[in-house]
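User: These chains co-purify. Model them together.
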Amino acid sequence: MTTHVGERVSRVDGRAKVTGKARYAAEHAAPDLVHGFVIGSAVARGTITRIDASQALALPGVLQVFTHENAPRLARGDKRWRDELAPPGSPFRPLQDAEIRWSGQPIALVVADSLELARHAASLVRVEVAPAPHETDLEAHRERAYKPPPHERPSVTPPSRGSADKAFARAPVRVQAEYRVPVEHHNPMEPFATTVVVDEDGTLTVYDKTQGVQNVQSYLTTIFGAEAGEIRVLAPFVGGAFGSGLRPQYQVVLAVLAARQLQRSVRVALTRQQMFTIGHRPTTWQRLSLAATRDGALAAAIHEAVAETSRFEDYSETVVDWTGLMYRCDNVRFAHEVVALDLFTPMDMRAPGAMWGVYALECAMDELAVALAVDPLELRLINYAEHDGNEKRPYSSKELRACYHQAAERFGWSQRDPEPRSMRDGDLLVGWGMATGAWESTQRKASARAVLTADGRLAVASATEDIGTGTYTAMTQIAADALGLPLERVTFKLGDSALASAPVEGGSFTVASVGSAVDAVCRELRSKLLKLAQQLEGSPLARLRPEDVEFIGGLLRARADPSRALTFAEVLHRAGIDHLADEVTTRPSKAHEKYSRYTHSAAFAEVKVDPELGTIRVTRVVTAIAGGRVINPKTAESQVIGSVVWGIGAALQEHSVIDHALGRFITHNLADYHVPVHADVPDIEVILVEERDEIVNALGAKGLGEIGVVAVAPAIANAVWHATGKRIRELPITLDKLL
Amino acid sequence: MNRFGYTRAGDVAEAVHAAAGDDAAQFIAGGTNLVDLMKERIAAPSRLIDITRLPLRAVKSLPDGGLEIGALVSNSDVAYHPEVASRYPLLSQAILAGASPQLRNMASTGGNLLQRTRCYYFYDAALPCNKRAPGSGCPARDGVNRIHAILGASEHCIAVHPSDMCVALAALAATVHVTGPAGARAIEFAEFHRLPGDAPERDTTLQPGELVTAVALPREGFAAHSTYLKVRDRHSYAFALVSVAVGLRMVDGTIAEARLALGGVAHKPWRDPTAEALLRGQRPDDALFAAVGEHLVRDARGCGHNDFKIALVRRAVVRALQQAVAGGPRA
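Assistant: Joint model of the two components:
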């Protein structure tokens, strides 16, 4: 049997991407296309008292300046504006009123014949605002923190257990520390952009940068009161998203609004600066209190967090739960609250919640190891959780021990001198740090449609996305294996709201969800094909049991006698049909409820620090990942390498700086908002640990999009401590903090 | 971006003539900074005078033993020019510490001198900024000022000059040649950039319509004992938090002549001849270097977030002097 799953298959869309054939949202052409440029608010809070667009409108080629004064009133009521991933609250509605809720909020759209003209005209629009006092500083307003209402994911903070505060007070070894993390912006390479093509019959084809074509389609249809068939959303290629495209962004509303009003095809693309006016990873304050017995067993764990949300939506993420999940401990207390600020609603960003929560926990574990004089890895093993203490149930699988052992071995962890500032490379201080990571593994309801044609080709489709993750490739591999076809005879289509239903592309659940549907529909076709073949007059496969027939290279063949075979094409031809088609919907199995399903990781990092100048270089990272069955080791490793680079950025560089007096992000370009460049990225070694899991889904794949990022920042922060003896509890660790 | 006219000049006279009388006209060469500034509505030239066809692309030896670099020689070509690399390694190092290969291939020598600050507030046309909109105020002083000046700032502006190349040129005591409506003149490098004072909108002492035609280096390039040390938030493609250009002439283990300029700390490359005088005639010594560092920051003042730069200058100066004595930067 040919297998493609598990092989290092190169991306099936790679050629299209490197030759420019792959078109992104702002690259789709349309006749008589016009361009919209967004004007954003300069203040964080207030009311627009006057907008004078006369100078802009006087320019030849400027078609319209849409503002709250002339834009059509769209749907009423919060419920209609709530997309599939909206947190509780009152979603933002562009150009529907005069109120300003955050700095950079879109307050007008200038539409003109060219992008340059629209952008110039935008500079001529005069906006008068009655400003109101704003609050953007989480630390300054922590006293306003409140418990957010439950969100669909995460459900709710699990209940505390035991008596953590008492146990903490009594324990012989204790650490307590506060950790601070900044706002980060996703900054995918492709900015948010929409091209709306007005078709001859008045229907709209919307090319949008999104992680969920169906989420955007139903959102647009609802807010514009359109018929279901009137709007179709396409996103065949997405240039990175990292969560920023899970919810419809404001530019898609503005583009559709303008296209409907002007009855012209319209494109609206955000600038890099405007990419800092959308959702972001929320700044979060945390306090970790860990206590242990002298032999290192956790006696108490208290994890408190206060994170930011907007004034109009209660965004929250899973920050504190990890502390009750990742280690065995009977006395655990959680507290998770949010503060509403005059910023746009935060958004899920790669490993939301875990990124910050596990960072704080894993740094606190390192501090506890120091307090106990125990090796940090040993401390993790002493407190290894065999069961999920939050949900009181077993894990579907957990090869974290193998992650620790394999990564520690590759890294050479046993050679570490526990004393800080003890290891040197010439004049440089060398630090070794490690951390654990965990991320949820879920499966969502998803559908896929497959069509096998008389030429022996298979076309599979589902309304999922490929945001650079390799969905096209993974689905092609899964489909090809299910029917025993070579890869080149299989195509997978995605990114079209008209296709079979799929969830948004996020949460590391695409392979588990859509992959399961693809596998199931192809297996359905396999059964149908076999049935057809066996019904043929004089069939060489007649009366064979299914397990005695193999599907290989486009053939159905008797296992026992390879001469008894039929090609797919022959079967269809002789059966007198030109294609076989089916659509299947898959859901998580009942067993899901009995098990906790997580991916795990261990990361080991080496840093070299200049003792006088404070400059930090990450010189080595080894990470091991247990994520179930790996569909494609090549794209999986790439995914994890990219995650490690993200972790380096989070640990040392990324910081969306807010000027609180102005209530505005001021590091809003890629010169000021630093992400790692090649010179910052060392050799990264990825170990994909073997993990069998028959509970998560039929494929046994747990998802790898996020787990790789979780352990990296704390491993680096711990390495910086080991190098310097300084515990920097505020990210990013920039050199000024070490001076 | 505003609507603007475009003129292509064939020679220096034509370029200067085209600019004469129109203070809102600007010369454009590589455009690596100006085009960004135009997109962000920070620059709104009435006209762009394209000078890329001007015959200013030569690197020539001068009769006095110096080297003249035409204003249109790209940053890459300067950095990799054999004469520059061997006789003025400090300049090569400084250029290669800045930007990216793509930018250095486009950016010109003259344009590098005229880079504008990377102050966050200057770069956001929605915000006040005395440099961009004189009289509108300086939000950086009480705002976020981690990257800002500790030396020579004024109440009106605490921006820093972003160039690496200029820090080396300051240490090398280069001369800037310009031609304007009133003819040609030479400006000492120390006089080319200015402190903000009450007119932070003016970065340089160029008069309206003047075009940079060349940068001349004196004979002494301190090739045996120089270094450019750049301290920044990531290992490439970031502006300096603090940088130090050092050139020493050593005779029999004694510092016969010293040059030292700082980047990332002021509105201009910061050269302090009194600090250089402390080194002259002395034997290299860490205590001496520390005293020089201390001397350089004697009038330094932080605004809060940038206070660390004062300590960083002290340490970076010691390190750079150590490196220069040893012959250059360590790998």
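The interface with chain B takes residues 40, 42, 116, 119-120, 123, 273, 612-615, 617, 652-653, 657, 659, 661-662, 664, 666-669, 671-672, 674, 676-680, 734-736, 739 of chain A (CB under 8 Å).
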